[in-house]
Every structure is written in structure tokens, then in C-alpha cells.
Write a structure and sequence with these properties.
Layout lengths: L6 H4 L26 E10 L5 E5 L2 E7 L8 E4 L2 E9 L5 E10 L4 E9 L7 E8 L7 E8 L7 E6 L12 E3 L8 E4 L1 E9 L5 E10 L4 E8 L8 E6 L4 E4 L6 E7 L7 E5 L7 E4 L4 E7 L2 E9 L6 E10 L4 E9 L4 E9 L8 E7 L7 E6 L11 E4 L8 E3 L2 E9 L5 E10 L4 E7 L9 E6 L5
Length: 456
């Protein structure tokens, strides 16, 4: 395709040899100054904070950053930036919770970590800066930040896997908000262990971790909001993205809910054991969380009165390290249709909102609409959830704290099948509602209340 260039453009081009009447004319052009650049990374480590948006000089830098998420390294023009961190509230509005000024210098990497807690007003920004530098071949670069406010001075051991730490000195020691220097270590397999200062009892154990050749790792010890007893988990920020390293002994948390209205009390067995993990669980009851090893398991449910009567036989479940699950026994004994419904639970508490999960576990009920309203009058209300089928779950919904009425209707009608049920949802609360058949099966339908609704 022929291109026709306007005369004004022609005379502005460097060299001008194609447009000048005099081929001997030479125009000297000074090359532009290189643009100074910096790298910025943002990490959300506020354990009770909601998702956030991050702006720089009023322009959106990041959106919907959740706890334990990292932006990766973002290239920006070196300048002074006013950084705002805006919490996203349950009603969709935002409010600024952190403000900071960043004077970004040329060839410097900045990591801004939001840490602390909303509930006690300790939320703050920790800024770490490092010069941009290459990593030698055969080595990895590691920097560690202590970002768990409830934990004091600790010792950190970075060793070969399974090395005995009883007679060795820690790799480093750190108090809350302390960041180590950047350390270059030979690429390979390592084990990271954390103890209280001066002690050898391990409070956190990473298991074997591979550090890649010429890779850069910014590791934050953040509050553990997952399963297990360790007070921390490790957030590993990479050049792009992140990873979470839960304590290798965290296991997974699993609880069982008896939601079969026409079934008697049951015993629950894991992995073919002859001793029940849960004994004599009646309809409507909830067994508290059991911590079990990660990986593949089987769940067997049998009648408490006679374990030879098996209603769920070696159902397979696969549990991820650090996660929490609810297994609902659902269906109908009369119809010989009992099965497990395995749901992943969201147990992290957020100071600005309540969390609500609603599950359709009523075997005899059709598709339903679910209302969450200020009063029992739903005549003009729009459902919070529509056309919900049996075995469906909402997942964790963020809700503005307050008092609500829950009504469940036959889908696309205002005919209330469950409720109205008045509930109070508090900030930092975690709540669950499972719709179930009436005792013995069928209508009128009812609910099983879980989590903060229940008295454990």
C-alpha cells in the first residue's frame, strides 16, 4: 500500500535527505535523555482488612487486592507519588485507610507492605527499598520481613532440608516490622523454620522449598488466617505474582454437618478407620473442625446404632494444605440418595464486614430465591440470590454489618418457603445458613445455622 507523507512531517524527520534540495545539508539531533524508572510492588498483609484499591497521584495503580496478594514489580517513572490505599466496603463504596508519599528514585525497587490490623487501628505501611541489581548465576536473592503484629522477636533458620538446628545459630533474627538485608544464597532446596528468639521449638516449618537460579524472593511472615496452629504463614512475592507457604504441619480443617432430615444419628469415619472421627451426629448437628493431613481421604458415614448400615461409603475428598472445608451429608435415606456435599470455607474475619454463606441442602425443595432484607416484607425486594438449585452454595458473600431478615422463596415467586428469619450479622463475623427439609423429610423447610450463629 502506498503511503503519502505530508510535507510538514517530511521536513521534521531526522536527516532530511529525502526532502531537502541539498543532499549535503546535515541536521544534528541531540538524543532524548533516558527516562528514569523505578519499580514498585504492593503487598496486602493486613489480616483483617478487606480488599483494597491502590492509587498513585489519583490514578488507579491496582484494584481489588485481597489479603495475601502481591502486585508483582511494576515499572513507573521516577517521581514523587502520593499513594492512597482505599478499602472496598461491603456495599461497594471505598474509604481511604492509608496514605503515604513515595519519592521514587531512579533504579530503585520499592516494596510497600500494608500490615497491622484495622480493628485496633494499627494498620500501617512498611516501605522497603533496594537498588536494582543483577543476581549472580547459580544464586537466588532472598529478603525477609516480619509482618505479624501478634508475634514478637523471632529467630529464622534457612538451612538444608532436615538439617538439625539444635546447635546452629539462626540465619537472622527479626522483630515485628523488621526487614532483613537482601541475602544471596546458592540456588537449591532449603527449609525455613521460625522459632521464638533464643528457643529451638519450631513455630513455623516450610518443609522443603526450592529457590531457583537467579530468582528474586521477597518473603513476608504474615498472620496465619488458614488452618493449623502456627501463628504465621509465609507470603512469597515474586517478580510477577506470589505464593503462600503454609506451615507444612498445618493440615486441613474438616467439619461434618448432618443435613439429611429423614436419617438417624450417624458416625463418620475417615480413611477406613474403625473408630469414628465423629460419633453420634444427629440431624441438624455440626461437628467442629477436625485437623487432618492434607491430600486424598475417604469419608464413610454409617448409622450410629448399627455401623453395618452405611449410607455414604468411602466418598473421596481431596484436601489442600491450609484450607478449611465443610462436608454436608445431604439427600434422603428414604430415597436411598445420600451423598456428601464438600464446600471450601472462607474463615478469615474482616473488620469492616460480615461474611455470609447460604447453601441449598433441602432435598425436597425446588429451585429457590433467597432474600436478605431490612424487614420481612419482600413484596418489592430483589433476591440476593436467584434460581438456586439443590446442592448449590453462594460461597462467602460480603455483607454490611446489621440486622437482616432472611427469606427463602420458591424461585421466581414471593411464596416464602423458609423464614422469615431475623439475624444479626456483626462486623468480623462469619455466618453460614443451610436450607434443609423438615425432620423426617419434606416441608415445612428449615435451616441449619453454622459458624458464629452456633454456640460451640
Amino acid at each position: 500500500m502506498k503511503r503519502i507523507y505530508p510535507f510538514a512531517l517530511c521536513v521534521s524527520l531526522v536527516g532530511l535527505t529525502a526532502c531537502s534540495d541539498d543532499d549535503n545539508d546535515v541536521v544534528e539531533v541531540t538524543p532524548p535523555e533516558p527516562v528514569a524508572t523505578s519499580h514498585v510492588r504492593v503487598i496486602h498483609a493486613g489480616s483483617d482488612a478487606p480488599k483494597v484499591n491502590v492509587t498513585a497521584n489519583g490514578a488507579e495503580l491496582l484494584a481489588d487486592v485481597d489479603y495475601a496478594m502481591s502486585s508483582g514489580l511494576l515499572e513507573v517513572t521516577s517521581a514523587t507519588y502520593n499513594i492512597d490505599v482505599d478499602a472496598i466496603l461491603a456495599d461497594g463504596t471505598t474509604t481511604t485507610v492509608l496514605e503515604a508519599e513515595l519519592v521514587a528514585a531512579d533504579m530503585i525497587e520499592y516494596t510497600a507492605v500494608a500490615l497491622g490490623k484495622v480493628a485496633d487501628g494499627s494498620l500501617a505501611v512498611k516501605l522497603i527499598q533496594n537498588p536494582m541489581a543483577d543476581i549472580a548465576t547459580g544464586y537466588a536473592r532472598v529478603q525477609v520481613l516480619h509482618a505479624t503484629p501478634s508475634v514478637g522477636l523471632v529467630d529464622v533458620y534457612v538451612t538444608a532440608p532436615d538439617a538439625d538446628i539444635s546447635n546452629v545459630s539462626p540465619t537472622l533474627s527479626a522483630n515485628y516490622m523488621d526487614a532483613s538485608p537482601q541475602l544471596e544464597v546458592a540456588a537449591g532446596d532449603y527449609q525455613i523454620r521460625i522459632t521464638a528468639a533464643g528457643m529451638k521449638d519450631v513455630a513455623y516449618d516450610s518443609g522443603t522449598v526450592a529457590l531457583g537460579d537467579m530468582q528474586d524472593y521477597f518473603i513476608s511472615a504474615i498472620p496465619n488466617t488458614w488452618s493449623g496452629s502456627s501463628p504465621v504463614a509465609l507470603h512469597v512475592a515474586l517478580t510477577e505474582g506470589q505464593a503462600i507457604l503454609n506451615d507444612v504441619n498445618s493440615g486441613a480443617d474438616l467439619r461434618v454437618v448432618h443435613a439429611v432430615a429423614d436419617a438417624p444419628a450417624v458416625d463418620v469415619f475417615l480413611d477406613g478407620a474403625t473408630t469414628p472421627a465423629v460419633d453420634m451426629l444427629a440431624f441438624g448437628e455440626i461437628a467442629g473442625y477436625l485437623n487432618v493431613p492434607e491430600g486424598a481421604h475417604t469419608v464413610t458415614v454409617a448409622a450410629d446404632a448399627d455401623n453395618a448400615v452405611v449410607v455414604i461409603d468411602n466418598a473421596a475428598v481431596d484436601l489442600a494444605l491450609g484450607m478449611s472445608y465443610s462436608t454436608l451429608a445431604i439427600g434422603s435415606l428414604t430415597s436411598n440418595a445420600i451423598e456428601p456435599l464438600v464446600l471450601m470455607d472462607s474463615t478469615r474475619r474482616v473488620a469492616t464486614e460480615a461474611k455470609l454463606t447460604v447453601t441449598h441442602a433441602a432435598y425436597s425443595a425446588p429451585e429457590v430465591d433467597i432474600y436478605l432484607t431490612a424487614s420481612a416484607d419482600i413484596s418489592e425486594a430483589t433476591p440476593a440470590l436467584e434460581d438456586v438449585p439443590f446442592k448449590a452454595s453462594s460461597g462467602s458473600i460480603s455483607v454490611v454489618p446489621g440486622t437482616y431478615t432472611i427469606s427463602v422463596t420458591v424461585a421466581n415467586t414471593k411464596d416464602v418457603a423458609i423464614g422469615p428469619l431475623e439475624v444479626t450479622l456483626d462486623a468480623s463475623g462469619v455466618y453460614g445458613v443451610a436450607a434443609v427439609d423438615n425432620i423426617g423429610g419434606g416441608a415445612p423447610f428449615g435451616v441449619i445455622l453454622l459458624d458464629d450463629f452456633t454456640v460451640m
